[in-house]
Amino acid sequence: QLQLVESGGGLAHPGGSLRLSCAATGFTFDHYAIGWFRQAPGKEREGVSCISRSGGTTNYANSVKGRFTISRDNAKNTVYLQMNSLKPEDTAVYYCAAVLWGGLACSVAAGIEYDYWGQGTQVTVSS
């Protein structure tokens, strides 16, 4: 059964850290680029970061660049999003998604249709 399951969300103080995990089952994980997206109440979904099939290429939204780090462990079929220096504006439901990608790149730009999505995990940054 094909599945993406996010975990690691919760409550953090401004300036704090959280690490999200995205565990995949049911498909050939290393054939897929993985993206993280987020959606805050009343706002459109935003692409946060992505990582290529091999992990050699990563991309970040300007809003998280320098604070978030994406990584993957293909042996464990898992992608991680380390979030440091969290801000209240990072509050959102975070989703991971997978897209079949034959090349060595990745993108979370609008118009890239991701094939599979997780159910999301809530991240709240508040004092």
Key descriptive features of the protein:
127 residues; mainly beta; 7-stranded mixed beta sheet
Strand content: over 45%
Radius of gyration: 14 Å
Strand tally is 11
Element string (H = helix, E = strand): EEEEEEEEEEE
What proportion of the residues is helical, as a percent range? under 10%
Task: Calculate the terminal CA-CA distance, rounded to whole Å.
Answer: 40 Å
Low confidence ranges: none
Count of DSSP H/I helices: 0
Largest sheet geometry: 7 strands, mixed
Mean pLDDT: 95
Put the structure in a nutshell.
This protein has 127 residues and is mainly β. 0% of the residues lie in helices and 48% in strands.
Structure description:
The chain is an all-beta fold and 127 residues long. The N and C termini lie far apart (40 Å). It has strands spanning 3-7, 10-12, 18-25, 32-39, 46-51, 58-60, 68-73, 78-83, 92-100, 116-117, 121-125. The protein is globular and about 40 Å long. A hairpin with a 6-residue loop joins strand 5 (46-51) and strand 6. The strands form 2 sheets. Strands 2, 4, 5, 6, 9, 10 and 11 form a 7-stranded mixed sheet that branches. Strands 1-3-8-7 form a 4-stranded antiparallel sheet, with no helix packed on it.
